[in-house]
Amino acid sequence: MIIRNVKLDIVCGVTSRLPDTGKPEIAFAGKSNVGKSSLINTLMNRKALARTSSSPGKTQTINFYLVNGAVSTDQPAGDENNPDGSLTDASMYLVDLPGYGYASVSETVKESWGRMIERYLRSSKNLRAVFLLIDIRHEPSGNDRMMYEWILSQGYQPIVIATKADKLKRSQIQKQVRLIRAGLDMKPGSVIFPFSATSRLGRDDVWNCIDTLVLQ
Ligand code: GDP
């Protein structure tokens, strides 16, 4: 993806109407603190456009980040960002779903959170795929497994991103990827991308995957 511009375009609260954006949407789910904001910022080449509040209960919104929304003039051949013309600068949304797993949040908040995500997964006409983020150092939790199953049951094959890969030695990465695969009982052939917001490991792979989904 060639990123020409990005902005936080739409914020939906529990009672907001969900938008029909008319553009491809790629959503990101994961436990709070897994590195979701950092991943979205890294994808967008921004330091702090996406941010999470450290206090639980304040992040119950779905945030729609518009990528390449502003009209760009057609780039002539030889565009410096894209010398071989192989990349797209399609207009699309990265959708930040609220993080789960705050132990201290009340059942009422958990319920409204669940309903909001469910409503989005059910009703979006433009959702192309859901990425599920798992910390590469840990085995998937019960909540992670529930989220994985939930995404599947809504008709999407979750694409897993194993975050904070810089915290491991290279030799440990594949071992942890196998653990996550087993923990989520993933089908053979389904994808896990090791990722690091610090070293930017995996950024190109994730974008290539998104490009394919957006151009379908
Ligand atoms: P979110 O709650 O899922 O949005 O998580 P954040 O993106 O806010 O990250 C939570 C914490 O993990 C922050 O302290 C980040 O600096 C840290 N973090 C996120 N991604 C990475 C990463 O790739 N590598 C390392 N070492 N730390 C990370």
TrEMBL record:
GO biological process: division septum assembly
UniProt GO MF annotations: GTP binding; metal ion binding
Coiled-coil stretches: none
SUPFAM superfamilies, per the entry: P-loop containing nucleoside triphosphate hydrolases
Any single GO CC term annotated in Swiss-Prot or TrEMBL for this entry: cytosol
Gene3D superfamilies listed in its UniProt record: P-loop containing nucleotide triphosphate hydrolases
CDD domains documented for this protein: YihA_EngB (cd01876)
Taxonomy, superkingdom: Bacteria
InterPro entries attached to this UniProt entry: G_ENGB_dom, GTP-bd, GTP-bd_ribosome_bio_YsxC, P-loop_NTPase
Domain EngB-type G: 22-216
Cofactors (names): Mg(2+)
Keywords: Cell cycle, Cell division, GTP-binding, Magnesium, Metal-binding, Nucleotide-binding, Septation
Similarity remark: Belongs to the TRAFAC class TrmE-Era-EngA-EngB-Septin-like GTPase superfamily. EngB GTPase family.
Protein's job: Necessary for normal cell division and for the maintenance of normal septation.
PANTHER family (UniProt xref): ENGB-TYPE G DOMAIN-CONTAINING PROTEIN, MSS1/TRME-RELATED GTP-BINDING PROTEIN
Protein name: Probable GTP-binding protein EngB
